[in-house]
Design goal:
Elements (H helix, E strand, L loop, with lengths): L8 H6 L3 H4 L21 H22 L5 H37 L2
Length: about 110
C-alpha cells in the first residue's frame, strides 16, 4: 500500500509541473478572439428532418411494446374502476364523519 502508482508519460505531460504551481509569476494570456458566428441555415428542412426522425423512432419504440391481451386489459380496467370507487366511498365517509363532528362541536 505504500507504493504510489506511476502516471503514464502522456498524463504527466498534461499536468502542470511543480515550478509552474509554485506561485511564480503567471504568464500573460493572449487576448481572446471573438467567436465567429456560424452561417445561418434554413430552418425548414432541419426541423422537418427532426420531426420525421422523431416519428420514425417513436413508431419503432411502439412496435417493441408488449401490449396486454384483451382479457388482461379488461381485468386491469376493472381493477382501476373498483379502486377509484372504493377510494371515493372512503373519502365520502371521512367527509361525512368530519362534517358531523364539526356540526356537533359548533352547535352549542
Amino acid at each position: 500500500m505504500g507504493e504510489k502508482k506511476q502516471l503514464s508519460p502522456s498524463i504527466k505531460t498534461l499536468l502542470p509541473q511543480r515550478s509552474e504551481q509554485a506561485g511564480g509569476a503567471e504568464r500573460p494570456r493572449p487576448a481572446a478572439k471573438p467567436a465567429a458566428k456560424p452561417a445561418a441555415r434554413p430552418a425548414g428542412p432541419a426541423k422537418e428532418n427532426r420531426l420525421v426522425r422523431w416519428w420514425n423512432e417513436t413508431e419503432s419504440e411502439l412496435k417493441k411494446v408488449v401490449w396486454p391481451s384483451r382479457k388482461e386489459w379488461t381485468n386491469l380496467t376493472l381493477a382501476v374502476i373498483a379502486a377509484t370507487v372504493a377510494t371515493g366511498v372512503f373519502l365520502g365517509l371521512v367527509d361525512f364523519v368530519f362534517e358531523r363532528l364539526i356540526l356537533f362541536l359548533t352547535a352549542r
